[in-house]
Automatic annotation (TrEMBL):
<dbReference type="Pfam" id="PF13589">
    <property type="entry name" value="HATPase_c_3"/>
</dbReference>
<feature type="binding site">
    <location>
        <position position="169"/>
    </location>
    <ligand>
        <name>ATP</name>
    </ligand>
</feature>
<keyword id="KW-0067">ATP-binding</keyword>
<keyword id="KW-0963">Cytoplasm</keyword>
<feature type="binding site">
    <location>
        <begin position="97"/>
        <end position="98"/>
    </location>
    <ligand>
        <name>ATP</name>
    </ligand>
</feature>
<dbReference type="GO" id="GO:0016887">
    <property type="term" value="F:ATP hydrolysis activity"/>
</dbReference>
<keyword id="KW-0346">Stress response</keyword>
<feature type="binding site">
    <location>
        <position position="339"/>
    </location>
    <ligand>
        <name>ATP</name>
    </ligand>
</feature>
<dbReference type="InterPro" id="IPR037196">
    <property type="entry name" value="HSP90_C"/>
</dbReference>
<dbReference type="GO" id="GO:0051082">
    <property type="term" value="F:unfolded protein binding"/>
</dbReference>
<dbReference type="InterPro" id="IPR036890">
    <property type="entry name" value="HATPase_C_sf"/>
</dbReference>
<feature type="binding site">
    <location>
        <position position="77"/>
    </location>
    <ligand>
        <name>ATP</name>
    </ligand>
</feature>
<dbReference type="Pfam" id="PF00183">
    <property type="entry name" value="HSP90"/>
</dbReference>
<dbReference type="InterPro" id="IPR001404">
    <property type="entry name" value="Hsp90_fam"/>
</dbReference>
<dbReference type="InterPro" id="IPR020568">
    <property type="entry name" value="Ribosomal_Su5_D2-typ_SF"/>
</dbReference>
<dbReference type="InterPro" id="IPR020575">
    <property type="entry name" value="Hsp90_N"/>
</dbReference>
<feature type="binding site">
    <location>
        <position position="32"/>
    </location>
    <ligand>
        <name>ATP</name>
    </ligand>
</feature>
C-alpha cells in the first residue's frame, strides 16, 4: 500500500506563517507531542477499562529520544495507535485544520507571541522544528496493519505500510537546519523538565546510571555496581492530584522544594480542589515575603491536565495573589484567547473569586485556630494581607477581621480590638478616634515616648505598604483619624484634661524657643515649648507630614 495525497485545507500556505509566528516559542513542539502521546496512553487505558480493548495494556509509557547523526527526535508511546485511515482522518484533517484555524485567528494578532506558548497548536507544531515529520503507528484494533505517514508540512503527504510491531505510535521529526540546537541532551532535558515534569504517565528520556548493591567484598563490606536504568523525567502523581487527606505537611514542603529548589520554606499553603462550576486543582503556598515584592511575583505555574502551560498567570489570579507561589491546574482556563478576552471570561472571573475566597478563608481560620502562631508570622503575612485589602475590594471586606495592627510595644490587635483599646483615651472633640502611628520607631522615639507618657498608644506602621494602608483605613473606617506621632497636630487634637504643672512662664518659653530655632530649625520644622509637665520632654521639634 502506498498512497500520495493532498490534504485539503482552506488556507494553502499556513506553513510559512506558522514558522514565522512560532519561532520564538518553538520549544513547545515537544510539549504538544508528548502530551498527545500521553493522551494516547490514557485512551487505551480507558478502552481497556471499558472492555473494548482486551489485550495486555503493558506498562504504559512515553519515551523521547534523539539521534544526532540522523538528525531526528522521536516521541514514542504505547497508546492506542492509529490505522492508516485514522492517520488521514486525525492528522490530515484535525491536526491540519487546527493549525489553519490557529493561523486564521492569530495571524494579525498584536500579542501573538503571548498567545503562542499558551496555545495548544498540537501536532502541527512539529513542523516548527522539522523539515519532515514521519509517523509510524500500529493501532490496538485487531487485524490492524502498521502504517507510515510522512509529510513536509505542506499539503502533500505520503502514506504507506509501516514497521511498528507493537501497539502505539512513533512521531519522528527530521529536524531542520535552524533547529539543530534541539539535537542536544541538555536542551531536550530542559524542555522536558519545564513542560512535562508532572505528566501522569512515565516519560523516559534515555537512561541514567545509578549504583546497585553487588554482594560483598573480601572484608564483608557491601559492594556496589553501576547500572543503567531508564531516566524517567516526571513525577506522575504530583500532590495537587491527590486528596489532602492523603498528604502530610512534609509532602507539601517537599513539593515546594521540587518546584522552587533551595527556597526558604513557605509559611503555609492552601490545597485547591473544585469540580463545579469549573474544574480546578492546585496548591498555593504563602512564601516568606520580602519587602521587595517584585522578586517574588509571577511564581505561580499554570497547568492544564498536568501539562505545564505558562507561568504568566496575571490574568487568571487577582493581582495581589500574584505574590503566592505554587501551581494551578485547570483545563477550564481558555488559553487560546487574547488577554482582554481572558479578563472578561466568565470562568476566569469565577476562578478569581474562588481563589480570593479560599485565601481569605485560610487566613481567617489560621487566625482563629492559633492567634499566637498567627502573630508570630504576622511580619510576613501582614504585607500580603494589607496589599490584598488595598487592591481588592472583596478581600478588604474579609481582611478587616484578620488584619493586625501592631503597636510600638509589639502587641497586636484587630481593628475592632484596637478601637476598643483606645476609645477611652484617644478621641477628639467631635468624638472621633485618634490613632497615632509611628513610621520609624528609632527616629520618632522621643515622640513615641512622649505620647506613651500621656497614656496614648502608638501603632508602628513602618513597612512601605503602610503608607497606602493608612490612607485606605482613613477612607474606610468611620470616625477614625490617623495621625503621625510626630505631626505638629498629633496630640493637640486629642482632648485631654491633664493637670499641667507650669514650670516656665510664657516669656521664658519664648526664649527657649528662640534658642532652638536659631540652632537647628530648617524650613518646614517647628519648635514647640509647650510641654509644661516636668516629667516630659520640654521641647519638641516637629516636621510636617508631606
Ligand atoms: P488535539 O490533540 O488537540 O486533538 P492534535 O493536532 O495534537 O490535536 O492531534 C490531532 C489528533 O491526532 C488527535 O486528536 C489524536 O486523535 C491524533 N493523535 C495525535 N498524536 C497521536 C498519538 N501519539 N497517538 C494516537 N493518536 C494521536
Amino acid at each position: 500500500m502506498q498512497e500520495k495525497g493532498t490534504i485539503s485545507i482552506h488556507t494553502e500556505n499556513i506553513f510559512p506563517i506558522i514558522k514565522k509566528f512560532l519561532y520564538s516559542d518553538n520549544e513547545i513542539f515537544l510539549r504538544e507531542l508528548v502530551a498527545n502521546a500521553v493522551d494516547a496512553t490514557q485512551k487505551i487505558k480507558r478502552l481497556s477499562s471499558l472492555g473494548e480493548y482486551k489485550g495486555d495494556l503493558g506498562e504504559l509509557k512515553v519515551s523521547v529520544s534523539f539521534d544526532e547523526k540522523k538528525k531526528t527526535i522521536t516521541i514514542s508511546d504505547n497508546g492506542l495507535g492509529m490505522t492508516g485511515e485514522e492517520i488521514k482522518k486525525y492528522i490530515n484533517q484535525i491536526a491540519f485544520s487546527g493549525a489553519t484555524e490557529f493561523v486564521e485567528k492569530f495571524k494579525d494578532a498584536k500579542d501573538a507571541n503571548e498567545i503562542i506558548g499558551k496555545f495548544g497548536l498540537g501536532f502541527y507544531s512539529a513542523f516548527m522544528v522539522a523539515d519532515q515529520v514521519e509517523i509510524q503507528s500500529l493501532s490496538y484494533k485487531e487485524g490492524s496493519e502498521p502504517a507510515r505517514w510522512i509529510c513536509d508540512g505542506s499539503t502533500e503527504f505520503e502514506i504507506s505500510a509501516g514497521n511498528r510491531t507493537e501497539r502505539g505510535t512513533d512521531i519522528i521529526l527530521h529536524v531542520n537546519k535552524e533547529s539543530k540546537e534541539f539535537l542536544d541532551k541538555g536542551k531536550l532535558q530542559g524542555i522536558l523538565d519545564k513542560y512535562c515534569k508532572f505528566l501522569p504517565v512515565p516519560v523516559q528520556f534515555g537512561n541514567k546510571s545509578t549504583s546497585e548493591p553487588d554482594g560483598e567484598d573480601a572484608d564483608g563490606k557491601p559492594k556496589y555496581k553501576s547500572v543503567e536504568v531508564p531516566n524517567i523525567i516526571n513525577n506522575t502523581s504530583p500532590i495537587w492530584t491527590k486528596s489532602p487527606t492523603e498528604l502530610k505537611d512534609e509532602d507539601y514542603l517537599s513539593f515546594y522544594q521540587e518546584l522552587y529548589p533551595f527556597s526558604e520554606a513557605p509559611l503555609f499553603w492552601i490545597h485547591l480542589n473544585v469540580d463545579y462550576p469549573f474544574n480546578l486543582t492546585g496548591v498555593l503556598y504563602f512564601p516568606k515575603l520580602k519587602n521587595d515584592f517584585e522578586m517574588q511575583r509571577n511564581k505561580i505555574k499554570l497547568f492544564s491536565r498536568q501539562v505545564f502551560i505558562t507561568d504568566e498567570v496575571k490574568d487568571v489570579v487577582p493581582e495581589f495573589l500574584m505574590l503566592l507561589h505554587g501551581i494551578i491546574d485547570s483545563p477550564d482556563i481558555p488559553l487560546n484567547v487574547s488577554r482582554s478576552f481572558l479578563q472578561a471570561d466568565s470562568s476566569v472571573k469565577k476562578i478569581n473569586t474562588y481563589i480570593t475566597k479560599k485565601v481569605a478563608d485560610k487566613l481567617a481560620s489560621l487566625f482563629k485556630a492559633d492567634r499566637k502562631a498567627y502573630e508570630e508570622k504576622w511580619s510576613d503575612i501582614g504585607l500580603f494581607v494589607k496589599y490584598g485589602m488595598i487592591s481588592e475590594e472583596k478581600f478588604y471586606d474579609k481582611g478587616k477581621d484578620f488584619v493586625l495592627m501592631g503597636n510600638t510595644a509589639k502587641e497586636y490587635f484587630t481593628v475592632d480590638e484596637y478601637k476598643e483599646k483606645v476609645k477611652a483615651n484617644q478621641t477628639d472633640k467631635d468624638g472621633n478616634l485618634v490613632l497615632l502611628y509611628a513610621t520609624d520607631a528609632a527616629k520618632q522615639d522621643s515622640f513615641i515616648q512622649s505620647a506613651n507618657k500621656k497614656g496614648y498608644d502608638v501603632l508602628l506602621m513602618d513597612s512601605p505598604i503602610d503608607t497606602h494602608f493608612i490612607s485606605q483605613m482613613e477612607q474606610k473606617l468611620e470616625k477614625v483619624n490617623l495621625k503621625r506621632v510626630d505631626a505638629a497636630s498629633a496630640d493637640k487634637i486629642i482632648s485631654k484634661d491633664e493637670n499641667i504643672v507650669a514650670v516656665l512662664n510664657d516669656e521664658e518659653k519664648e526664649k527657649v524657643k528662640g534658642i532652638f530655632e536659631k540652632a537647628i530649625v530648617k524650613p518646614g520644622m517647628k519648635v514647640e515649648v509647650d510641654s509644661l509637665n516636668p516629667d516630659e520632654l520640654p521641647v519638641i521639634v516637629t516636621m510636617d507630614e508631606f
